[in-house]
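Pipeline run #58 for the internal structure catalog. This entry was flagged by the ingest filter as a single-chain record with no existing model, so it goes straight to prediction. Upstream metadata was stripped on purpose; only the residue string is passed forward. Reviewer on rotation: M.T. Logging verbosity set to normal.
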Amino acid sequence: MTRGNSSTNSARISGQKPTAATDETLKRYGSKLGDISSNQIQSSLSSTRSARTSPGRRTLLRYQRRCLTRPASVTYAALMSIEEVTKQVGIQPSKIVEGGEKWERDRLRQPLPSQLCRDLLDDAIRTLLGPKKDRRLVVFIDDLDRCTRPVAFRLLEALKIYLSIPSCVFVLGLDWRTIRQAVAAEMMKTEIDDKERRGDVVLLRADDYLDKLCQAVHRLPLMADAEPFLTDLTHSTEFEQPKEWVNQILQYNLLPANPRKIKSFVNGLIVYVGQLRKAVAGELDRDLALIVAYLKLYEDRVFRILESNVGFWDEIVRFCKTGASDPETGEARRDVHDVFQSRKLPDSPVFPDVPIEGEEFKPVHYQPLFPDPADERVFRAAKLIREWSKKTSLTNNLFRQYIQLRSK
């Protein structure tokens, strides 16, 4: 039976003349729904208009089941085209669609929410880019490392669903070390066996996870020479002799190789020096000013303790000389305050093999450790504090002026 006959018979059953809309609807959806004999429907309806016997209902139920195996949008459109037929036997299209959705849910035929979102995004991208195949949609996600560890990991897990979408590129701006630790922390909760809970093993698995996720990694180069940047920042302020300040900062390597942190330090130093000029009469002690500015901006806990007790200065000097742990055994030193336990020196003290009788057992020199330039745990002011403490001590007068910002 041709589709034209189906259109005619369908219209005759409903008591209406064939229309262009009916014919077009069946042409569009008939091939997708499969052939169903209009004679079957007509004969069923003629015998069930009054009594609605079971054979007629069974015929439509077979049609209903056939519709339920098709996509919901096609099924709904087809049912709307025979609305009058379904009304005569007491079956409404909305009920059939609801039954179809329930059938799909019961048999797991519905797409998962993640797959549905992916399909919708894929369709949106194709619509946005148009027919040209050389276009790309680039999605930038910056500062991912500023998220909490669970949130950053969940975002990476969600992105895996969309990475294979054609013509779509994701660009992530992040601190690799921070995200690596976030992934490792989440793996420790669920995926790592007790035998693999060592820090090095977990970090290696986190690296493997990120390598598989990121198809191309571009690492931004470190700031090799901070002098031009520092000079530009200090010359745009009211610093007196800005070159001297820049030379002191560079000589003792006070700042990490991070433009954002360098700018933050200079801005804080500008404010602090302006306060110092009101409290100190005469020339400023540039070294002490840099030490206090470093503690205020990068070592807040250390500065708070020092601000409340001038005697804590000796603890700071001791840590800068010996470090927080024994260089040979790696055990924490008991004579070092616990606020320094998470801090590392940029160099390692070298002690004499045999202590000199009558003299304090102290390092003879310091060997550079070449720490990570971006490692925030490095106490970079250690060398400057050691050098300054050799020349002078933190008197009560200096304490009031430089730390408490009180004039004489």
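catalog note: Residues 1-19, 25-42, 47-53 have pLDDT under 50 and may be disordered.
catalog note: The chain is about 55% helix and 5% strand.
status: ready for reviewer M.T.
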